[in-house]
Structures are given as C-alpha cells and as structure tokens.
Design goal:
By secondary structure, the protein is an all-beta fold. The chain is 0% helix and 55% strand. It contains no helices and eleven strands. It has strands at residues 4-7, 10-13, 18-24, 33-39, 46-51, 58-59, 67-72, 77-82, 91-101, 104-109, 113-118. Strands 2, 4, 5, 6, 9, 10 and 11 form a seven-stranded mixed beta sheet that branches. The chain has a four-stranded antiparallel beta sheet with strand order 1-3-8-7, with no helix packed on it. The radius of gyration is 14 Å and the shape is globular.
Length: 119
C-alpha cells in the first residue's frame, strides 16, 4: 500500500508560479514510477510529468519547458514546479505512483489538489 498526499494547489494569475508537493508513505526511491497527472472539467486525465527508471523525466507536450518535476528521496516527496502558468493549466492535479510488487504492477493515486489559473 502506498498513500499519496498532494499539497500546494491554489489560485494564481496567468504567468505566475506554483509548486505542488506529493508526500509518499513509501520510500520514493522504491517506486518504479512517481509523477503527476491532471484532469480538467470535461476532459480526460493526462500526463503532466513522471519520473521513471530512465535518465530523464517525461513531460506532457503542453507543459514542456514550463514545469519541472523533482524528487527528494530523503523526504519521500515529489515536487512539481509550475512556471508561466496559463488558464489552460487549470485542473485537479493528481500524484501517481507505480510499484512492482510480487511480479505485478500496482498503481496508486492521491486525492488531488486543485490548481486554478485566472486570466
């Protein structure tokens, strides 16, 4: 079982910045994937950024160059630094973790945090 809790969401003007945090109950170093997804009203959930086993994080096309994901394994926390925010970034942001346990990949989600960008 992995419990994820997001924080840091809120209301910000276009062009501003926010930093989201995701605290994990399990060591982030032990996770296969850890990252962020978002879902806007009436839209499907989409990838924002994820740290996998490869050398570099993966980002959704719409956030490349503006968002940065990082991980602090000492604090078991993953961050999403969001700069140059746009109204289209308005969504509920969810932390997601995947871990291989007993030969099967299990997936966990946090409850989400609302980000609202005003124009």
């Amino acid at each position: 079982q992995v419990r994820l809790v997001e924080s840091g969401g809120g209301l910000v003007q276009a062009g501003g910045s926010l930093r989201l945090s995701c605290a994990s109950s399990r060591s982030t170093a032990s996770l296969n994937d850890i990252g962020w997804y978002r879902q806007a009203p009436g839209k499907q959930r989409e990838l924002v950024a994820v740290i996998r086993s490869g050398p570099s994080p993966n980002y959704g096309d719409s956030v490349k160059g503006r968002f940065t994901i990082s991980r602090d394994n000492a604090k078991n926390t993953v961050y999403l630094q969001m700069n140059s925010l746009k109204p289209d970034d308005t969504a509920v942001y969810y932390c997601n973790a995947k871990i291989l346990i007993f030969g099967g990949l299990r997936e966990y989600w946090g409850p989400g945090t609302q980000v609202t960008v005003s124009s």
